[in-house]
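Format notes (please read before filing issues)

Several people have asked whether sequences and structure tokens are stored in separate files. They are not. Every record keeps both together, in the order shown below: the sequence lines, then the token lines. Line labels are part of the format and must not be stripped during preprocessing.
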Amino acid sequence: MNTQQYQNESFLDGNQAAFLEQIYQQYLYDPSSVDAQWQTYFEAIAQPPSAVAAPCIDPTMERRSLQLRVSRLINAYRYLGHLEADTNPLGHYAYKVSVPQLMLEHHELENIDPTLTFDPGSFNIQTAPTLQNIVHALRETYVRTTGFEYMHILDVQEKRWLQRRIETDLARDKLTHPERRKILEQLTAAEGFELYLHRRYVGQKRFGLEGGESLIPLLQTLIHEGGKQGLQEIAIGMAHRGRLNVLTNVLCKPAGELFSEFEGKIDETYTGDVKYHKGFSCDVSTEGGPVHLVLAFNPSHLEIVSPVMEGSVRARQDRRHDKDGDQVLGVSIHGDAAFAGQGVVMETFNMAQTRGYRTRGTIHIVINNQIGFTTSTVSDSRSTYYPTDVAKMINAPIFHVNGDDPEAVVYATKLALEYRQQFQKDVVIDLVCYRRLGHNEADEPNMTQPVMYSIIRSLPSTRAKYAAELAQAGVVSLAGANGLIEAYRTKLANGGITCCNSQTRSGLPAELQTHWKMFVGQPWRQAVHTNCSLERIQRISDRWLSGIPADFMVHSRVLKVLEARAAMGRGEQPIDWGFAENLAYATLLEEGFEVRLSGQDCGRGTFSHRHAVLHHQQRREQWVPLQHTADYQAKFTVIDSVLSEEAVLAFEYGYATAEPNTLVIWEAQFGDFVNGAQVVIDQFISSGEQKWQRLCGLVMFLPHGLEGQGPEHSSARLERFVQLAAQENMHICVPSTPAQTFHMLRRQMLRKYRKPLIVFTPKSLLRHPLAVNDLEDFTRGQFEVVLDDQDITDVAAKEAVTRVILCSGKVYYDLLDERRKQGLGDVAIVRLEQLYPFPSQELVDVMEYYPNAKRLIWCQEEPVNQGAWNGIKHRFEAYDYIEVVCVSRPAMAAPAVGSLYMHQRQQQALVREALGHFDAECAAD
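Then the structure lines:
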């Protein structure tokens, strides 16, 4: 392409500007990535004209060079304007980078004719596009009190949408006087609340919002704008800071109820929790109709509430069939240091657009105090420039906004909501503020942050600055602004609701008063029929195979499994674990209970026993037999989850707390991996009911059993769950047969109460020749918490028993096999299938069958300092008529040995010792 061709081309007109911007950006990133002709062109116009060559410069080329430099300047503001934006209310306290790309000199545009106009391309400008006007519009848009970070987004449509939305109105709203007065009222409430509590409850922790008061107009804007756009529910997850303020001034919790908590006047029925961990719910009236608000309960573990909230949102969306997220929104409020520092944030982001965990976009709000607890510098708290940089992993736009400009905060909130509603993706608002007091009200921040806090002490509050601004603009008088302070203080002192247009639900969470109501206060022990008719079992098992489309090519080995299951349903083969588990799901689906099963390999099953998802062998197609069990059935969802334990388990807990009529199951790939989610177990699953009255029917499948696979694939840490079991908080079961699993899962849903169910599932037993059942075990019976010895049935044989071995799980089959080999008639083996609630009476009933027993052996394959023994041995104190001992591996620091040979020797030794034949050689090994 020669100079004459350049002159004849019209590719610099407005119609081609977007294309030109895109290809020029590509050239700047990697010149070799564009066509050679474009490389030549950009290289030519990028060279500055020399004084000698000036008379020879082609005017058209010079004009085009200027145009491209202006386009590059516009692009620089879009990419880097946020770095120079006035987003920090502390002024220049924070480190700011130099941004030469925003200077005219960098683009050699400082000495051009001021009357020249340029094609601004896609940049929207309302005045003549001279360089001066373009720069003015760019600075008004990109470097005022909001910094927009969005050019990292890969989707061009999303970037163009944000550009049009931001640049058309210079990144601000034209608010009416009533709207501005409303913001002042909200700031007055935010500040007045903290001042009132600070004086009334001196020295008590409240983790106040001082310095971040703009959070209240932010949330109020989100709620009321969301209501206009059709939202019906908003679920919020947040940590401590500002929580009490949000409860009172957003969720309309009565002030008197909060005062009672400060004064220690709480219901002693439950253990309860501190006031800044509690949640609440209410209905708020908006122009678009009522919006139900929920603030999730959460502990001190900072970001762990984020995936819990996401699970709750997904459950609410599924219940409403809200496939686009138009009705239910999740809002996650973070701290700056926690957002950057907690790995669960990344895990939660990673789930954002996945099939099983997407919630159609979450609005993230970072209360950016610019300090993490007492961290001295940013370099100590993170390795990124912004605390929000982790959000770029999912191409989320990020709006950095100065917390001392509440109108900019409101604008950023509206923009974030519109983006979420438009694209159903996550978006982040970085509310840059400060912490006027310390980490808590007893903390002295000057010890570690003297310079920062000398600046903070000199600053007027956000409310004071805004009131002065409105008074100067004639929107409100100073006397009127001060009158708002007295009006709010009076309202607060009266102990009532400080929010307008709301209907609150206090006490139990809203869900417990609606579809959870039937599960509240139910007795612990409930008889329930879990068996199924033979005809029903046969019909279901036959349909699993016959329902597969004729052209669906199933893997040959999987086809044999399905054929075997059909034979099991006809009674032609013993029933194995995979059949029993799938049958439990199928029958519940027919009865109207949804089933949600997630885990890292749960479609197939880590040990290839489940085969809930069939894969076409030549096409990318799947067939899920359990979705076609009956003509009319509930929804079955199976998800091979992201490679996460903490966030995924927290998500499933949140889902289960919001939906009582879905069997929600999380399966660990190996039980050992549950270590990665221990905070969810400790802070939510085991204690959520006692702390927050949150009922939950979540089921955890934890593959467990010492089988010679080493320390990391043996133990699901049974001892930890037994230790946590108290106050009727959960079920802990170790089923030893397929039928027991079938009845246990059905019992979980058919009983009229909801408790977490922890199941230690087998590995080798999935195909053990003795771990099978007949059809009659499914057509009759129920889940048995204690299983008596099935080899010793007549009275005389039971009276001959002198040693009773009590055990759980896989070791039963090792004991049974060895006893049969030795032909021992004086040893009975009893299985404890439920460790908690401990079946004391059922065990007493079984022990009465053995009146001549001299010794009761608790046999476990785990080391003596692990497993169930230390958590249940006190249960045997009443057995003073018989010697009670434990047989196990010796105490160990790790769960198991790494050598298969050593494992087998140890297993042989403990089995023989439990049977009364101590093997000194094996024990020594």
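For reference, the curators noted about this record: Residues 1-10, 49-55, 503-509, 920-925 have pLDDT under 50 and may be disordered. DSSP finds 34 helices and 23 strands in the chain.
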